Structures are given as structure tokens and as C-alpha cells.
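Quick entry, no commentary yet.
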Amino acid sequence: MLSRPLMETLRSILYNWKLRETGIVNHRMILNSNFLGSTLCSNCVESKIVNGEQFYIIEYEFNKKEDAKDCLCPFDEEHFLIEHTVKHEFVSQAIDISADQLMNSFFDLLFKCDRLTHFLRQKELLTSKDPFALMLEHFLEEERQICEVSNINHNINKRMLQTLHSIKQKRTENRQKLVGLKEKLSLSQLYELINQLKSIPDVKNQINSIKKSRQLKMQANERRVILPLTRSKIFSEFTDSQRY
């Protein structure tokens, strides 16, 4: 549940970092999330390039491909589950921190995510590529697609592409640092780290959207079983007896 909310939040910080870096201080990108009534994967969902005012972004479309509803694709190194929508909106709201502070926030969040990955590796709970890498590679591919489009101004997108390219090396450095520190999180330290991440407003809002999506899916798959009166009475008596 955490991988996409964390990486979408990381990308949102990246957007505002690059806006601030280019001298834009009176506007910012905000992240809005919402629930979904169906389950799609990154392979089935349709997407489009949209103008985000100062740069271009790729948005997923969820209403045009009804035949992909509740797809059965494997969630592996090429697919990830999409359980909530994410929209980035350019608003008239000042960015009240510097580009350097946003950069530090970006790499601080990335390091915390790498601490989680390091813990999973230590416990041998990663069966394949870590989920953060999958998301980051997907973001990188989206930026590549945008930068290949002709006749649009993608100067800021090129800046973001450059930063996304550098993340793989940065994550390697983070991993080496954690190995050098011989970090071994206790369960209480792990939960403290997870709670820190879940308390980030953008992460928290996305998690709530995912919970709502899952609730809707459970409700959609609920089935009522009507038993004959005699069987219903016997079943009721049996279940009541199990309470004691």
C-alpha cells in the first residue's frame, strides 16, 4: 500500500523543486488523490500527456477502458497495481521554501524509503526488484516519453529526467551507507519509520483513497446467501453455540 503513495509524493516534491529552481515562487503543484471503483495495472491503464502549465505530465485515464476493469495481469517487475487516482494541479500558492530545502526533502524521503528496502532485504522479504525501483523506472520512462515529443517546451521536464536518471546511483550510495552503518532496525524502529512516512499529508491522503477503493471492491463482491428457514435456524443455533 505504501510504495505508490510514497513515490507519487516524491515526484510531487520533485515537481516543486524544479519549479522553484527555475525561479517560480508564486505557484506550486499540489497532489490530489481519489478512490477507484475498479482495479487496473500500469499496463492496462490508458494515459495521456497533459499541459501542467510550466511543464508536461502524464495522467492516467480510468473511464475509457471498461474492458480492462479488474484486469488479471501479474504484478511483477513490469506491472504494478493502481488502486487510486493521482492528479497534479498547478495552483496560485507560494512555494515558501528554497530549492535547496526541497532538494533535501526529496533525498531525505528517498533515503527513508531505502531504509525500508534495506530492512526487507535483511529479512529476505524481497522476492524480486523492490517496489520503489519499479515505480521510479516507470516515472523515468514517462519523462522520456514527454521529452521525445516535438513542438513543446520541455525544459523543466528535461531537468526532472536528469534527476530521475541520477536516482539509481543515489540509491546505490544509500544502500552502501546503510550496510556501512550496519543498520538493523528493530520492529519498534521499523513501525516508527513507517508511521513517520504514513503521517506525511500527501501519503496519508493517498492511503485513505486506497482504503476507500478496497472497501468499494469488497462491497461490490459481497454476496448474500439466502438459506431455507429450517437450515437458517440450524445455522443460527450452531453459530450461537460457538460463542460459548
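second:
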Amino acid sequence: MGSAGVPNTIIWCGSDAGLQPPRSTQLHAESHHLAQQDQEQHHQEDMQQQQQQQQQQQDQAPAEEQDSKAVNSEDGVANQDTSAGSSQDQDGDQAQDSAKKRCDKCGKKLGLTGGFPCRCGGTYCAVHRYSDRHECNFDYREMGANEIRRDNPVVVASKLRKL
């Protein structure tokens, strides 16, 4: 009655061996073996689920990095319009500084807050977060004028200079 791979063991305990049927010993051995197989299958299934979860997490991490790189590349395109030469240098420095989380002006560690991002693409400490403190190359005046032109087409360009 033994299945393949299951040892058929009969334990003989002297003269009482004839009173107890050896089948009970065989069934006990088979049930113990089946229980071990079930445990191994559950363990393998758990390992497979853990591997799948790890793969999903790894797949999500590169997707998030690509999204952030796409956003950074769009910012890089805007910076190239304002200053073509310095934007390439800033992109290289920004990639290094963002990993270190330091102020782009003074190099101070930014800590848990992560600093203050600027529209010029840099990240600055509390002292240098304002555009006049870190020699920002982003033209806020031109941006404001463009927003007014877009929102209020009735406003004439000569009136915008007075702002």
C-alpha cells in the first residue's frame, strides 16, 4: 500500500507484533511523509510569493526613477533656453548634490527637510532659499508678465512695464 518514495517500515516489537496490525505503522509513516510534503510545498509557495513581491518592488523603483528623470529633463530643457552653457554644468552638479542633499550655494547638509527647491533647478538651505540670496538665473519678472498676458489679454504691453 506504500506509494512511490515512501518507505514501507514495519516495526516489530517482540511477541506483541502479531496483535497490532503493521498497517497502522505504515499509515502513520505515510501521513507523516505527506505532512512534510505539504510543509515543503507551502514553504516553496511562500518563497515564490516573496520573490514576486521583490520583483514588483524592483520594477516600480526604476519606473519612479524614470519619471523623476523625465521631470528633471523637462527642467533641463527650460534651463537650456535661459542659459545654454551653465545648465549642463548644473545638471551634472545637481545629480551629485541631490544624492548628497546639500545646498547648491553653501554646501550645507539639508537634513530631513530635503531643502527648498527653486525654479532654477537647485535645492537650497533656509538661508539661500530666496532667489536674491543664491543668484538665481530664473526670470520671475518675465514669468509673471507671461502669466498676466495669458490670463488677461486686455492688458496692454505698455502697462506691464509699470509692474
